[in-house]
Write a structure and sequence with these properties.
With 127 residues, the chain is mainly alpha-helical. The chain has six helices and no strands. The two termini are 18 Å apart.
Length: 127
């Protein structure tokens, strides 16, 4: 449990700098609505990554690694994809500000951090 919470805390601590950088870029392109789109996209990807870490770090047995990776992949990809789909269908200023692109960028960032934490903090005998 402590290892799971430590990974989630590290994950949460590593995401604000890329979200802040994306927000600055979004402000340059779209103003404050761009910042809103970037922060919302970062938050959606953070939520998916956090749930993914929770699921993936649940089992430490060597025979459960594939199940943890695939089980963690579903929320990491599914939550941002579904939110992106519904925001795109609805249209409006978030789509015009580039919400879909920010989801794509922040999804890649959370993917790298999430997978890095998953394999970095596994026990050597469990990997």
């Amino acid at each position: 449990m402590a290892g799971r919470l430590r990974r989630m805390a590290i994950f949460t601590g590593l995401l604000p700098p890329p979200i802040l950088a994306g927000s600055c870029l979004a402000y340059a392109f779209s103003g404050w609505i761009g910042v809103t789109a970037a922060v919302l996209a970062g938050g959606v990807c953070w939520l998916g990554g956090l749930i993914s870490l929770w699921i993936a770090s649940g089992q430490e047995a060597p025979d459960k690694v594939l199940l943890c990776v695939v089980g963690g992949m579903l929320p990491r990809m599914g939550i941002p994809l579904m939110v992106c789909f519904f925001v795109y269908l609805r249209g409006g200023v978030l789509v015009e500000a580039g919400f879909v692109y920010y989801i794509l960028v922040f999804h890649l960032v959370t993917l790298v951090v999430d997978v890095g934490l998953f394999f970095r903090y596994r026990r050597p005998d469990a990997a």
